[in-house]
Write a structure and sequence with these properties.
- The structure is a homodimer.
- Chain A is of the alpha/beta class.
- Chain A is 44% helix and 12% strand.
- Chain A has three domains: 66 residues, dopa decarboxylase, N-terminal domain; 254 residues, Aspartate Aminotransferase, domain 2; 111 residues, Aspartate Aminotransferase, domain 1, CATH 3.90.1150.10.
- Chain A contains 17 helices and eleven strands.
- In chain A, the strands form two sheets. In chain A, strands 1-7-6-5-4-2-3 form a seven-stranded mixed β-sheet, sandwiched between helices.
- The radius of gyration of chain A is 24 Å and the shape is globular.
- Chains A, B: One of its GO terms (molecular function) is pyridoxal phosphate binding.
- Chains A, B: This is Aromatic-L-amino-acid decarboxylase.
Amino acid sequence: MSGHMNPEEFRRHGRQVVDWIADYLAGIESHPVMSQVKPGDIRRALPPAAPERGEPFEAVLSDLGRILLPGITHWQHPGFFAYFPSNASGPAILGDLLSGGLGVQGMLWVTSPACTELETVVVDWLAGLLGLPEHFRTDRAGGGVIQDSASSACLVALLAALHRASGGRIAADGVTRRYTIYVSSQTHSSLERSARITGLGAAGVRVVDVDPRTLAMDPGHLRALLDRDETDGAVPAMVCATVGTTSTTAVDPVPAVGELCRERGIWLHVDAAYAGVAAVCPELRWLNEGVAEYADSYSTNPHKWLLTNFDCTVLWMADRAPLLDALSVMPEFLRNPATATGSVVDYRDWQVPLGRRFRALKLWAVIRWYGAEGLRAHIRKGVALAQELASWVSADPGFEVHEPHPLGLVCLRPVWPGLAADAADRATMRLLELLNASGSVYMTHTRIGDRVVLRVAIGGVATERRHVEQAWEQIRWEHAALSATLP
Amino acid sequence: MSGHMNPEEFRRHGRQVVDWIADYLAGIESHPVMSQVKPGDIRRALPPAAPERGEPFEAVLSDLGRILLPGITHWQHPGFFAYFPSNASGPAILGDLLSGGLGVQGMLWVTSPACTELETVVVDWLAGLLGLPEHFRTDRAGGGVIQDSASSACLVALLAALHRASGGRIAADGVTRRYTIYVSSQTHSSLERSARITGLGAAGVRVVDVDPRTLAMDPGHLRALLDRDETDGAVPAMVCATVGTTSTTAVDPVPAVGELCRERGIWLHVDAAYAGVAAVCPELRWLNEGVAEYADSYSTNPHKWLLTNFDCTVLWMADRAPLLDALSVMPEFLRNPATATGSVVDYRDWQVPLGRRFRALKLWAVIRWYGAEGLRAHIRKGVALAQELASWVSADPGFEVHEPHPLGLVCLRPVWPGLAADAADRATMRLLELLNASGSVYMTHTRIGDRVVLRVAIGGVATERRHVEQAWEQIRWEHAALSATLP
C-alpha cells in the first residue's frame, strides 16, 4: 500500500516544491502570459481515471511542468495587465504554507484560539494602516473578519442589512416584504447575485444612474429611487457604494450617498475591493472619505493589490450584532464553555461557511515582512507607472485615455479614423485579441459610454517600468499595423 | 524600504518553513491537543499595531513558535478525536503550496485553463473512486465542482433547487411564494442557515422525525409533511438526506426519501460531508444506496477524512443547468471568446464567490500520492480502530455505546449509578472537561435522546491503535476517579 508522507519525505519533497516555485517565479517571463491552449487540451492529456497505486511525488511535479504549465495563464507575469492584479508574494505563500502545515480549522475560538485571535489582531492592524475608523475594531461594537472574496463580503453585508431592515424578522419569516437594494450600473455583478441568493431577485435591485463622465453614482437619482420605493411600500435595505469600480475604478460619492442612507436608516455597504488597500498611502487616504461617518460595512481585498495571495478579503462592520444575529445557529455539537461565556469571537457566525482556514497567517506574514513602508512603496509604484502610461497615451493622437485614473488602472481607446462606432469597437476587440495572442501581455476590455476600451491594470509584483513601456510600444505597434489593413 | 522577497530569499525561507512543518509534525505529540490558553491571551501578546518597517521572516517563525503555538488546538495530533478529522497530509500541503506559488485565479476557463480542466478531471476521478454515477460526470449533463465547505455546497444546491421549483422565476422575482425545505433534527445546521440566507427563513424549514434508535429520517413523516404543505399551497423545493450525520453518523434512507422526491418532482440533496469519501472502499459502497437513482445533488468533503487539507468539498449535480441558470451574471469585463463559444466550463457560475483558488492541485496530489489503494487503507484503518474501541466500550459495564457506528465515530455514554439524568449529564460534561484539560486527548459531546454522550471521532493521519487504547484507558480512569467523588 501507499502510506503517509513521513516528515523526512515531507522535508525532501517540500524542498523540491520550494525550488520549483523559486525557479518558476525567477523564469516567469519565459512563458506566454495568457495560456494559448484550446478547450479540452489539458483534460485530454490527463488520465481518465485515478491511479490504483500511489505514485512518487516527482510524478506530480513532472506532470505539472509538462502538462499543466501550458494551460496556466500566468497571473504573476510582469505582462499581466488583465482584470486587477492578484498579487502573490513570498511571505504570503509561506504564511499560507504554515497554515497548511498546522492544518487547524478555526470555526470556533476553542478549535484554535490563536487562529481567531491572530485574525482579530491583523484585521485591526490593517484597519489602522488604512486609516479606517476606530469603531471598526473588534474591541468596539464593530469588527473585522477575513472572507474568501468581495462577493461573499457583499452577501454577508446584505444579510446583516436585511436583518436590520426587517427588525430581525427575516431569519424567522423569510422574505415576506419587498426589500430593495441600490447599486449603480458600475457596481460589481456580485451585488445582483447577492440579491438573487437572498431571495430578493433582480426585482429587488435598483440601478442608480451614474455621472456619464466619471461613472460615479448620482445621489440625486438615488434619492428619487428611494422616494419612489418608499412611496410604493418597498423596504430599502441596503445601498452599495463602490470605491474603485471594477470597470474603470470610478469612486462613488460616499458622503452624499451616506447622508441619504443615514436620513432613512438604510444600511450603507462600501465595496472597496480593489481600491481600498491603496489607502495605506496617506496621499490616497481620500479614498476613505465618508467611510468613518456613514459606512455600516466596508470591504477591501488584500488579495488584489496588497501582496496577499487569494483568498483574503477583509470585511469590517460598524456594528457586528446584526450579522451575528442573522447567521448564528448553535447546534449541540458546537456548544463549548468558551462560547457560552460570550467572551470570545467565533468567526463561523461572521461568514457563510462553517469551517475556516487559518488565513490570518498569510496576511500577518505580509504585513510583517513589508512593514507599512513596504506596502506603501508597492502601491505607489503601481500608481506611478499607471500615471506615466496615462501621460503617454494622452500625448498620442492615436488614442484616448479615460479620465480620471487615480490608481493603477488605465482605460484607453484606440482611435480608428474613418470607422463608425461599431466597426471601431470590433477593431479594438481585434487589437485586444492580437495583443493577448502575442504572449507578452494580457489585457481585458470594458465598455464606457457603450464604446469598447482596453483596460491596463498595473500593480503586479514583478511589473517594472520596462514592462509598461514594452506594453505601450506593443499596443501602438499593433494598432498601427492593424490600422494599415483597414479600409 | 522593504522590498519583495526575491526567488533566492524565497528558497531560503521556504526551506525554513518546510523544516518548521516537518519538525512540528514529527513532534506534535509534545503539545497538548487542545489549547489551554484563556480568551485574550494570544491577542495581548501581539503588538497592537502593524510594524512601520519590514521585519525578517525569522521574526514570523519565532513568534509563531513562541506566541501562537500555545494558542493552537492541534487538529493533526493523534489524540484529536473531536468533531470529525480534518486531515492534513504531505501531498495536500505541497499541492496547496504549488497553488500558492502559481498564484492564479480560476474564475473563468480563460483565466487559467489548467485550473478549470484539472478540477474537472480530479472530481471525475473522485466520482469514479467513490462509485458515484456516470451522470455526475461533467461530460454528461451533470458535473462536479470544488466548494469551500459542505455549508456552501448545501447553499448552492438549494439555490439550484429553488430555481427549478420556481420554474426559473426566483432569480427575477425573488421569493414570492412559500417555498419549503425538509431536513431532520439530525441534519447539519448549515441547512437552516441556507434557508435563512436564501430568504425562506426558519418558517420554510420542516423538521422530519427520526427513528429514535438509528436517528435516521422517517420517510413516513416526510410524506405526511409534504402532503400537508402541498395542501396548504406551499412549494416543497428540496429535501436534504444525510449520509453520516454530524452528531452520530446516522444514515437517512436515501432510496425511500428519494422515491418521495421523484413522485413529487422535489430536488434531493444528499449531504455526505463526512461519510461519503468512505465509499472509496468497496465494502462501504452501501453508503451510496439510492444516490445514483435519486440524488439531484451530492456532496462530500475530502477535507475531512480523505487526506486533503481544508478547504475541499466536492459537490456533484445530476444536471448542472439549474445551478448555472441560478448564478450566471455576465458583466462586460468577464466576457471573453472562450466563454462565448459555450465550449468551456466557467466555475465561477457554480459557486457563490467569483474568484477561486487552484484547489484541484491538492486533491490531485493526494490521489496520485496515495492511489486508490492508499486512500482505502486510510479509511479502513479508521473504521477498524473505531470498531475496536466500540467493542471495548460495549464490553465495559461502566459505559453504553450508541449503535450503529459503522464508520469512524463512536458515541459513548458513561454510566453514573445513582444519578438522575440531569446530574448524570452534568457528570459526563465534567468528565469531558477533565479529559480535554489533560492535554492528551480532545473530544466533543452531543445529545442522543436528550442525553449527553461523548463523541470519539477516529481517522487522523497520525492516530495509531496505541492512541485509541490510551484514550480509552484515560476515559475509564477519569470516569472511575470522578465516580469516586460523587455522592
